Amino acid sequence: MVFNTGMVGYVESMTDPSYNGQILTFTYPLIGNYGVPNISTKDENGIEKHIESDRIQVKGIVIHDLSLVSNHWSSVMTLDEWLYKEQIPGIYNVDTRKLTKKLREDGVTMCALVVSDSDNVNIEDIQTKLKKTVNYNNKNFMEYVSTKKIQIIGDTNSNVVIIDTGTKNSILRNIIDIKYGIIKMPWNTKVEKILSYKPNGVIISNGPGDPKICADTIKTANILLEYNMPVLGICLGAQILALADHAKTYKLKYGHRSQNKPCINIDDSRTYITSQNHGYCIDRESLKNSEFRLWFINADDKTVEGIKHKKNKSIAVQFHPEAAPGPYDCKYIFDTFKKIMEENKNCPK
């Protein structure tokens, strides 16, 4: 179970692949008040317009006050109707403030969402079942969130390869916005296959779980760094890129999941308000063992929020520059990546 402190964006959050395998608690008390838009609507490139993947990714949601009536021009169904349609459980009338305090004090935890017709819930039986369940930290979620086949999106005369470890649709939209086509590939695609498409750059996407489990992606990232290929890591992708160059990662006590996290760009001392969703982080001290240097830090807890390679053109951010939900302060990261690709035309392909 994890918690998100955002005031809006429940549709985007619930369809974010980074939440796969998690029960999500919303700390904002009223959820569902603006309903759910037409989730099947797609843009001219076949990308879903209103959601971040093709389905609800969370295992369940916990909220305080459920709005059973929605009043918004884009709403076609209520939150409750959407959950029922996709067979995702939810529970409301919960003191989410008290629950969040517990998660902050004890850390995120394995949990169960149980329905009963009586008050006689067997807690010991539930705890026994939980102990037999594969722990979230040890599970490889790539089979649930990564594409099973190569997908081509947009005009690929100039293209970016996305190594899909749980890509949000908004990342795809931002690549299209900077005038590049997309070659979306499974998380364990070999580097030879990636290079065969002659990409201008590679993005390693966001996604769920412990980055160390993505051993194949880490190996591929290591080779791409050796080739001096422009690489952008986002969230899980940032952690994978760090591991590929001998840095380390660790699990945060309760993670960063919100739309208002301040991050400082140490290159210009500017603070940006960011959208975040991660439970793991890059070890700041371990960057000394790599060719990466610190780029962004979290203004609250000083954790690593961005890194830059000292020699080649690879960059990574722990926050979500594509937002969805959240502020668009950091969309310029995609423009920065575009500039890097255009300056790196001599990169071997």
Structural descriptors:
Rossmann fold, globular, Glucose Oxidase, domain 1, 10 helices, 24% strand, 2 domains
Largest sheet: spatial strand order: 7-9-8-10-11-16-15-14-12-13
Q: Tell me the number of helical segments per DSSP (H or I, 4 or more residues long).
A: 10
Helical fraction equals 10-25%
Q: Regarding CATH, which class of the largest domain?
A: Alpha Beta
Total strand count, please?
A: 16
Q: Write the CATH homologous superfamily of the largest domain.
A: Class I glutamine amidotransferase (GATase) domain
Shape: globular
Q: What is the CA-atom radius of gyration, in angstroms? A: 20 Å
Euclidean distance between termini CA atoms: 43 Å
| Average pLDDT for all residues | 95
CATH fold node name of the largest domain: Rossmann fold
Strand content: 15-25%
Number of structural units classed as domains: 2
Task: Profile the largest sheet.
Answer: 10 strands, mixed
- Derived from helix and strand composition plus strand pairing, the structural class reads alpha/beta
Q: Would you identify the CATH architecture of the largest domain?
A: 3-Layer(aba) Sandwich
What order do the SSEs take from the amino end to the carboxyl end, as H and E? EHEEEEHEHHHEEHEHEHEHEEEEEH
Spans where pLDDT lies below 50 across 5 or more residues: none
